[in-house]
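ok here's Methyltransferase domain-containing protein:
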Amino acid sequence: MPEDNPFPPNAFRRQDETPDANFYHFPRFVTHIDAGAIAAVTQLYREYLPAGGAVLDLMSSWISHLPEDVAYGRVVGLGMNEQELRANPRLSSYVVQDLNHAPTLPFADNEFDGAGICVSIDYLTQPVEVLRELARVLRPEAPLVITFSNRCFPSKAIAAWHALDDHGHLQLVAQYLQAAGGWHQLELLDRSPNEYQSDPLFAVVGRVV
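and the structure:
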């Protein structure tokens, strides 16, 4: 095991180890968190992602949860299902790529001013490699907003995610960033809505060194 990746391989095992391309072959035009949690994601994007900048929506789908009243110079989506990506009205362009199969991002160094990963970090089997790549393609001090809730596709979430509670998920994602290197000013946030029975919403925010 590489010294800069301190996680045991079994941490990233999943109940369903069949190719992810099969699982995501058919589009899912649904939201994976409720309206209150979506609003919390949008508010985080409003606070951290720079207006007018180039934004990377990693593990994207048919909706990006970006604030409607904020204009970005460019929004690029990378996800698993082309029909979902094609239907996303906020994307300037998109790439279909399975990060668990190929974690190297097809972008230039310092290409983006900010990035988001929304309710998807729990599916990555090579998160350290992906986050190391994100540090490469983002400009210095650019923010990365990683959000998650307590919902997931259980068969595709990694074993470590299943073993931890919400606080543990925050710590795990922070450890990913620390292991990847190139990140600082980490913030671990609970942005759960106050509404009764709303989905919780947590975030880890980091900036490129």
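+1. The chain has a mean pLDDT of 93.
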